[in-house]
Every structure is written in structure tokens, then in C-alpha cells.
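Q: Here's a chain of 279 amino acids. Please give me its 3D structure as C-alpha cells.
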Amino acid sequence: MNNSKVWYVTGASQGLGLTLVKKLLESGYRVAATSRNAQTLKQAVGLIDAERFLPLVVDLSNQDCINESIQQTIATFGRIDVLVNNAGYGMIGIVEETAEQDIRKIFDVNVLAAVNVVKAILPFMRKQRSGYIINIGSVAGFVGAPGWSVYSATKAALAAFSEVLALDVKEFGIRVTVAEPSGFRTRFLTANSLANIETGIEGYTAVKSTRERYLANNGKQSGDPDKASAILIALAESEQPPLHLYLGQDAYRRAAEKIANMAAELEAWKQTSISADFG
């Protein structure tokens, strides 16, 4: 294990990001971690080691702020080997009741912020001719549940971005993985991490029952953040990490079922698909 690597982790003051940062520091890695509040991040991490830990206050909606944090990381540690785009939040509700400003906000955080961090880091990774980018997506970006349409759209966008990014940067020795977990015991379903759009519209029974089930499951999710963090660290040491990695049994099951259904549908409509060509 090469624990001299430098990691840059966004959204590190809680949830999977915080668990990952703690495990990285325990393992001897050097870590730059972003949060909106440095003091909260320091208290959450509980390990203040200026030689290996760089807490950064970063507004991920501000490209200049992102650029400055990258420059500060390079000035402190000399390089960045692994980027983890972890910052994000969920949104559950009915799309016709979701305000446009709320839709734009979640795309800004879940998609555009990740793209902008990648933009800022790529010049340094290209110069190194090495690097590893982990974008934290969700199984919901591939197999959504009722009520999660807008959130699923953000994670589907992040997955598509990751797929093509991997093709773009392969020649520079840079690898990309989109990690797509199911439910993990983080603070994802708490008020600070979830936009819960209430509804007074009659019907939408699938959305309402799903929302109740998900919120009732807070703190009971089957996913273990410690195990997920260990897997992410192992990925960074792998010579050929996967492009997609579904994390959790539920994520694997849902993805496998959809792939099988898509394959069957593709074949069932094959003649219609190919009939659209000239000739």
C-alpha cells in the first residue's frame, strides 16, 4: 500500500466523506478535505496533524474558491493523487411540486460542483501523468425509486460524465470510477442532507409510500460506511479499478435486475430499433 498518496475529498464533515477521511488519516495518508466550515470539520475529524491533514473551507459553487483550494493543496503536499467528489445531498418529492430553484440548486451541488473540481485538478494530474478520480454517485442514478426523480437525474448525469471522462483522460494515466451505493448508515436521510418536498396533491401513492419507507429506515440502512471507505482506499491501490462500482447488496441486486430487463427489452425491440436506418 502506497500511503504517501495525497487525497482530496469534498463534503468531508459528515457521512461517507468524514468516515473516509478518518480512515485515510489512520492509515497514514495525506488528506486535503473540504467543508463549508473548517472548525466543524476539525472537530468531526478529531485529528489535527498539520503535516498530513489540510482542512479547507470551500464554496463548491465558486470556481475561484475551488481553484484556490487546489493550489493550497499542491503548495502543502506537492501533488494530488486521488480526488473523491463526495459532496452532495438528496431530494425526495413530486417533481410537479419541486421549485425550479431547488432543482437548479441540487444540480449545482451534485453535478456542476463535481465537474468544476475535476476541471481544477486535471491540469495537475495530467502533468503527473497519473491520478485517480472517484465520483460518488448512487444506484438511484441507474435504478431510481418513486419520488427520487430529480435526485436520480443528478446522479445519472454524474455517472455519464464519469464514463466519458474516463475515455478522455485514459491517455494521461488517469483512472475514473463512479461509486454507486445503495442505502448506507450516514446522515443522508437527515434534514441537513435531504430536501424533503411535502405534497398535498391527491394520489402519487407510490411516491408517498416510498418516502415514508425511506425516512423510517434512517439509521437502519444495511450499508456500512467503514467498509465502503476501506473499499474506496483499496480501489485507489488497484491497477485496474472498475469504471462502475455498485456498493451494497441492494445496489448490486437492483442494478443486476435492471441490466437483465434492459437486455430483454433491447432484444424485444431490436427490429424496430434497426428499422430506423436508411436502406
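Q: Can you summarize the key feature?
A: The chain has nine helices and nine strands.
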